[in-house]
Amino acid sequence: MLRFGAVSYLNTKPLIETLAGHLEGWGTLRLDLPSRLAGDLASGELDVALIPSVEYFRNQANYQIVSTAAIACRGPVWSVRVLSRVPMAEVKTLALDEGSRTSAAMSQVLLSEMHGIRPQLVPFPIGAEADEIEADALLMIGDRAMHPPRETYREIWDLGDRWCRWTELPFVFAMWVARRECLANPDTASRIEKVLNESRDEGVQCFETIAQREAAAQGLTNEDLHRYFAENLHFHLGTGELAGLDSFREKANAIGLIAPPKPNITENQPSSLPTQRPS
Ligand SMILES: C=C(O[C@@H]1C=C(C(=O)O)C=C[C@H]1O)C(=O)O
């Protein structure tokens, strides 16, 4: 059996509405936070997962994108926000939602490019409330980011909106990625692709049904949730989304968020070694 993992937030419901049915007899499906899915795909506990896009960049030698189904946006996304207690240009500490990997990187890219700042990072644990966290600004993603904040903030960024206006490109938060060894058999590879694409194509026909079923439990109206699926989110990796991914990779890499930092060769060396090479 192939082990599939998908994001447990509302944003993923249209991608998985019919997936379990398609997987019957050959795959299992587990729902979890994006950061945990990334860890479990990297460790081999999952074979195929909807992982944060930045994690694909970080582990590309072992990974392959297996579907055009994705969690993306072409403007305001609603569920990914930076809430700041000070003007954004003055943020010195940023609390990162522990469920996130991509928005964690994207918020740092935007703060660096737009304001030239690299705040100190602190965790924003899943079970914590924003008002318990001491930080100038907080990154919040997923269902909990969709509710009006309890505190009054100085500035609130919708990161989808900020990215799309800054780069004039779409943004891809997560995509379906498989470990390369699971794709050795071409039949398996094409079955995975077919099932994930079909599930998305079926799911995007069901916004109404999903909204009616899920909205109340999340404290949202059916109309709001329907609008989130239909207008904020975008579920297809097209050429614009691929260009957005390239730009994100470049920008995140430029500030050291993708490649592991190169060791400083003069560090940890015997003190008798010269630190400067003879000319
Ligand atoms: C739009 C969203 O995209 C998500 C953001 C992710 C991240 O920041 O790593 C990962 C997966 C997506 O679920 C959201 O969570 O609201």
Task: Label this structure with key terms.
10 helices; 2 domains; 279 residues; binds ligand ISJ; alpha/beta; 6-stranded mixed beta sheet; D-Maltodextrin-Binding Protein, domain 2
Describe this protein's structure.
It comes from Neorhodopirellula lusitana. This is Chorismate dehydratase. Pathway: Quinol/quinone metabolism; menaquinone biosynthesis. This protein has 279 residues and is α/β, with parallel strands linked by helices. The chain folds into two domains: 2-73 and 171-254, Periplasmic binding protein-like II (D-Maltodextrin-Binding Protein, domain 2, 3-Layer(aba) Sandwich); 80-167, Periplasmic binding protein-like II (D-Maltodextrin-Binding Protein, domain 2, 3-Layer(aba) Sandwich), CATH 3.40.190.10. 36% of the residues lie in helices and 23% in strands. The chain contains ten helices and eleven strands. The chain has helices spanning 13-16, 19-23, 34-43, 53-58, 102-115, 159-167, 186-203, 207-214, 222-232, 239-254; strands spanning 2-7, 27-32, 48-52, 63-73, 80-84, 93-97, 120-124, 137-141, 155-158, 171-179, 233-236. It has a six-stranded mixed sheet with strand order 2-1-3-10-4-11. A five-stranded mixed sheet has the order 7-6-8-5-9. Strand 6 (93-97), helix 5 (102-115) and strand 7 (120-124) form a beta-alpha-beta unit. Helix 8 crosses helix 9 (222-232). The longest helix is centred in the last third of the chain and has 18 residues, at 186-203. The mean pLDDT is 94.
